[in-house]
Design a protein that fits this description.
By secondary structure, this protein is of the alpha+beta class. Helix content is 38%, strand content 32%. The protein has helices at 12-34, 42-66, 102-107, 163-176; strands at 4-7, 70-73, 77-81, 87-90, 94-99, 109-117, 120-127, 131-137, 144-148, 153-156. A hairpin with a 4-residue loop joins strand 9 and strand 10. The chain starts with a strand and ends with a helix.
């Protein structure tokens, strides 16, 4: 089976949050750089501006590096493509895959340690109905729940809802070997 790529595009909320945050960080960094009192207090002014710029840029770059961009399905694994380090889930580790109702998922989900819109929705989320989950999502729709053999729950949101059927084919092929 050749590798299949499933895109993961941002929903409207994620696009707005990403654009707003990018604009806000850009304005703040511009103000740090252009409006400091560099003549009178050169070292203290440039130091504070530099630290602020480095922190904002670091947070932005770190968040971007963790954001999901696509899901690559191969016979033996699912790879979550990210600008930083990819995440690989072996087919042998997947116990079940299912679609999750958008309303059920959005009703009681809370962030535990996660990004809730900047470049997508990823990190640790919790829900009364689902418990602790790791999200690699870019939208609040097309929810796919992967349950691993280790009772870990993973949420993906591919643009193409045919993702579940393709993963099941891989799981069935693996089981018949």
């Amino acid at each position: 089976m050749p590798a299949m790529k499933f895109n993961a595009s941002l929903d409207v909320k994620a696009k707005i949050v990403t654009l707003s945050t990018t604009t806000l960080f850009g304005v703040i960094i511009y103000l740090f750089i252009s409006h400091g009192d560099h003549e009178r207090h050169f070292w203290s002014s440039i130091g504070g501006d530099l630290i602020g710029t480095v922190i904002l840029t670091g947070v932005y770059a770190f968040t971007y590096s963790l954001s999901p961009r696509a899901y690559i399905l191969e016979k033996e694994k699912i790879t979550i493509k990210r600008p930083g380090r990819d995440v690989v889930i072996q087919m042998s580790d997947i116990r079940d895959i299912s679609a999750v109702n958008k309303d059920a998922m959005n009703a009681n989900v809370e962030r535990a340690f996660a990004s809730d819109g900047l470049f997508g929705y990823f990190g640790e989320f919790t829900s009364g109905g689902f418990g602790l989950m790791t999200w690699y999502a870019t939208r609040k729709a097309n929810y796919v729940l992967l349950e691993t053999n280790y009772r870990h729950k993973i949420i993906l949101t591919p643009d193409d809802t045919g993702f579940i059927a393709e993963v099941r084919k891989c799981m069935d092929a693996r089981a018949s070997e």
